[in-house]
């Protein structure tokens, strides 16, 4: 009897340890080429981005990055700030936390787990390090915003054939059909028209791709 109880207790402890490993960003086993979707909470712009395009499972995403593993180190290649850059995984996941202290991040992976495609995508992204951030959010203008970098990385890995989709961008509030004031001010400062209807991509749209599956949600 005691042996059975001990065995059940041992199995329970092992199962709990495995669950913790899967849901703890410090111990989670990332793969090269995983795509991390993030609710960045950067203010009005992030709110506008999240409002116009719903993410997978109804989640809100305003940023994403690509996992790169080398020499047993895990980093994220991302277009953020002034350029495409390398960010340590712990800095990335701790950038924005929910009310319970968990990273507002969902980890996704290719459904077919094509290692060669993942590797080529990461190699492309690494080659773009230092490329200027695309403040205008215009596709194929020699600079990169976050989802544009991942879109082009997987396109390059896929023999230069689109892997994810480009869709017409909108900067309008779906509640009233008017341009978000934050975008009006943003593009006025850039002294350029709002690229309404231009082809592009965003984190929410890519997160809903049938080519990706959620591996774990940290929040």
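-> sequence recovered:
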């Amino acid at each position: 009897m005691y042996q059975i109880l001990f065995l059940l207790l041992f199995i329970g402890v092992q199962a709990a340890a495995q669950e913790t490993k899967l849901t703890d960003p410090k111990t989670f086993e990332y793969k090269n080429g995983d795509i991390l979707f993030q609710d960045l909470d950067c203010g009005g712009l992030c709110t506008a981005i999240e409002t116009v395009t719903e993410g997978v499972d109804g989640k809100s995403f305003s940023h994403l990055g690509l996992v790169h593993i080398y020499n047993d180190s895990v980093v994220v290649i991302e277009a953020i700030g002034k350029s495409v850059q390398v960010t340590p995984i712990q800095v990335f996941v701790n950038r924005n936390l929910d009310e319970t202290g968990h990273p507002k991040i969902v980890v996704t992976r290719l459904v077919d787990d094509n290692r060669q495609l993942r590797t080529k995508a990461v190699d492309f992204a690494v080659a773009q390090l230092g490329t200027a951030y695309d403040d205008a959010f215009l596709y194929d203008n020699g600079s990169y915003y976050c989802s544009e970098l991942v879109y082009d990385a997987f396109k390059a890995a896929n023999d230069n054939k689109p892997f994810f989709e480009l869709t017409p961008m909108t900067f309008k509030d779906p509640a009233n059909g008017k341009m978000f004031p934050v975008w009006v001010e943003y593009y006025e400062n850039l002294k350029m028209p709002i690229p309404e209807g231009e082809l592009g991509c965003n984190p929410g749209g890519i997160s809903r791709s049938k080519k990706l599956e959620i591996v774990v949600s940290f929040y």
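Residues 2-23 form the longest helix (22 residues).
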